[in-house]
Amino acid sequence: MTTGFSQTSFPKEFDLDGDERFPSITSDGNTLLFAREQKKGFDFFLSNKVNGKFMPPTQLILPDNMPYPTSPVISHDGRWIYFSAYNKGNNGDIYRMRRWGRRLAKPEILSSKINSRGYELFPSPTKDGKGLYFCRLKDKSEPTNLKYAIYYAAFDKKGNVESVNILPQPINLYSEKEPKIMPDGKTLFFMSKISDDEEEYEVMCAIKNEDESWGEPFPIDALNAQNYAHPPCMDGTNQMAYFTQEGKLAMLHWGHILKTDAPQEEIAKTRNNDTGEDNEEQTETKKQTTRPSISSFSDLGFDIIDFKQPPVYRAIIIGINEYQDDKIANLDRPVDDAAAFEEILTTHYTFPKENVISLKSPTREKIIETLDNVMEVAKENDHILIFYAGHGHWDSKRKAGYWLPSDAKAKSTANWVRNSTIKEYIASYKAKHVLLISDACFSGGIFKTRAAFTDAPKAINNLEKLPSRKAMTSGTLKEVPDESVFVKYLQKRLLENTEKYTSARALFDSFRDAVMNNSENVPQFGVINATGDEGGDFIFVKKDKVEAKEVQNDTSGD
């Protein structure tokens, strides 16, 4: 019997008053969601793993109109949080919230095909997002002997519910709850009563066969030997299973979870009260179907075992020359500056052309639409750069800065893009690093710090590990000249750079004095306030000469 439980990776802030339940973790093993029971329901908490250790958890704030929230689960990609809460009729419905870091969208209730007039809870989405396992309270349950059944909802390509079906026997024999589907889409853990006569639940596992039927569920001895354990979730990086034991979070190596000392024939009997008088053919069938062979950890559908996903570099590059309102002067340089900057990034640095969006004199709608589109595709390890060249305006009365899109009007701010709007997008992006470079006024409280930096940058590896939200701007003047000294030296230093890795701060320090010596502006660099910066920095990665030459050849051949 395995008893090697450990909480050494959990700081003391995890073990507070209230039972901790429902752990779930993203496929990369870096974001853990769990719930802590309180009198009015469960509080939800997130913890990120940094340098192999979970940080103290932060509570997620839910709307006040969500009575008794419970059974939360984070999707495998980390973009959604599902949970159950009481509705107006004091029955339970399943909701989901879009997630960007610790920022949550408004909860949305799932389809009525899933949420009946009864009580639904314990959602568990599949890794591919095409289905949802959940639990429903049986209509004829006695108040003192509640019975649950596990269902599966299938979604179409647009995310609409195609069908909802109760899982067939041998799973729903008595009362089954708390389903947890593994990333392979065929390994299902759940809580089950052994028979109608039993009151206690045990952790069981069932494997889906090739014909889509379910094999005979078998007990998970390593968990059932502990007091009041629950189905596990799976860490795809460290091969660890996380679950709750006696109201506390616990972990166990995945190899021990599926280990059992019980004979195959005995496992089959625990669910159906067989007398053991089966003929030889029936017995042999049970041996083959009851405990399918799981040969290795990789069979469970993960593709990131002992592998760190390389960062993906994305860029939004905006240059605005022409303005529809005659009262706003047209500019000559921003579009060309933006194009030159794009060429430098795609030719000399690790920005694939397909990941760079170039906007020439866009309207406000086009800018917002592009910011939305990048939010949809961005992932946790992405590096996103936003570059803007065009008119900017600082309103000293409102203490607010603006970008002026091509459809801006001089006498109305309706089509202007407020700096705080850009800041909200930066805070919401699901990316490790976001860097804003603005050749327009972008000050007025958006920076946490704006002082020049004189101390040496930290090691590149340390800067890369921690999330960052930084900005560098051309200055604090209300207007910047059409021919930008800031952009000139930014491009010059990027082209002259010979280092493989360069932090945004080191890049800024390399041309700040040159801008001040050749213009009236004082360029600024700092942390964008309240957007999720944790001390890291955006790292520019220079291509080697062979890569750069290949890119240039591809461009000349277009």
Automatic annotation (TrEMBL):
Transmembrane segments: none
Xref: Pfam families: PD40 (PF07676), Peptidase_C14 (PF00656)
GO MF annotation: an example: cysteine-type endopeptidase activity
SUPFAM superfamilies: Caspase-like, DPP6 N-terminal domain-like
GO biological process, one term: proteolysis
Stretches the record annotates as Disordered: 269-294
GO cellular component term, pick one: cytoplasm
Lineage: superkingdom: Bacteria
Domain Peptidase C14 caspase: from-to ranges: 314-524
Matching PANTHER family: METACASPASE-1, METACASPASE-4
Protein name: Peptidase C14 caspase domain-containing protein
